[in-house]
Structures are given as C-alpha cells and as structure tokens.
Design goal:
By secondary structure, this protein is mainly alpha-helical. The protein has a domain of about 60 residues. About 90% of the residues lie in helices and about 0% in strands. The protein is built from 6 helices and no strands. α3 crosses α4 and α3 crosses α5. About 5% of the residues are buried. Keywords: Membrane, Transmembrane, Transmembrane helix. This is Putative zinc finger protein.
C-alpha cells in the first residue's frame, strides 16, 4: 500500500468502515511508515475530539493513549478473525476426514459383501463342476446296468427264492 492510498483510508479507519483485508494492509503500512502513522494520529485526535464535542461528552485527557488502544484493538480483531478462519478450516478438514473414514468403512463393507457373494457363487460353481464329472460316471453305471440287466434280474430272482425258502422253513417250525 502506498502512502497516498493509506491517507485515503484514514477517515474510514477512524469510523470503523474498513473491511478486514484492507484494514490489515492499512495497519501494516501504518506500522512501517512513521509519516502516515503521525498523520493518522493527528486525524484521529481531531475527528475523535470533534465527535465527542458534538455528543457533548467529556474529552479524554490523553488522545495518544486512546489512539494506541484503537490500533491495538484493530490488530486484535484481525488476529481473532484469522484464528476463527483457521479454526473453521481445521473443523472442515476434520469433518471431511470423518466423512471419508465412515464412507471408506461403508465401501469396505460393500466390497467385502460383494466378494463373499462371489466366493459363494464360485463355491456353488465348483460343486456343479465336481458333480458334473460324477454325472458322467453315473451314465457309465447306467450303461453297465443296462448291459447286465438280465444277469442282475436272474441273481435277484435267485436271492428272492432263497429268502422265500428260508421264510417257509421258519414258519413250519
């Protein structure tokens, strides 16, 4: 900020009409430039004194102390606004981190659930594949039974005949 810009902001500073960014630049310039600081103090003394006379209040005995206190209050306002801004950012970052963490847990559960379903499907597919090979053996067994059907039936008849004879023998006794 140049001296001419700083001088144009003297009255708005005294009347508390500067926004925080402009106020910060103005105060930095005032701290560095002794001429602008002296001019600000003169204007502050004049304008504050006239304002207090218009309001019919008692004039302070030490305008310099009032001026220094005003500068300190304005610097504290800027520092407090920065602290609040930093706190808001930290809270925002924490909220984003918490939301991200919770979302990642939800996504993890979804993915793990999907993987479990895929594993179950694969187990089912493995069962079908394993049994598919047994199906071929069953058809081989069916062929064997069909081929030897007559022999099996004869063996069955002989077995039934023997059972009938033993049953009749037991009944006679």
């Amino acid at each position: 900020m140049t001296c001419s810009e700083a001088q144009s902001y003297i009255t708005p500073f005294i009347n508390d009409e500067l926004d925080s960014d402009l106020l910060e630049d103005f105060l930095i310039h005032i701290e560095k430039c002794a001429d602008c600081k002296e001019e600000l103090e003169v204007y502050y003394t004049l304008l504050t004194g006239m304002k207090q006379l218009d309001e019919e209040r008692n004039l302070p005995s030490d305008f310099h102390l009032a001026f220094v206190n005003k500068l300190k209050r304005e610097e504290e306002k800027i520092i407090n606004k920065k602290i609040i801004s930093i706190r808001k950012r930290v809270v925002l970052i924490l909220v984003i981190c918490v939301i991200s963490f919770l979302s990642s847990i939800g996504i993890r559960e979804y993915v793990v659930g999907e993987l479990k379903e895929v594993e179950k499907q694969e187990e089912g597919n493995n069962y079908v594949i394993k049994n598919y090979f047994y199906l071929d053996k069953e058809t081989t067994l069916d062929k064997f039974i069909e081929k030897n059907k007559n022999e099996i039936l004869n063996y069955k008849k002989q077995f039934e005949y023997k059972n009938e004879s033993t049953d009749k023998g037991e009944q006679n006794e």
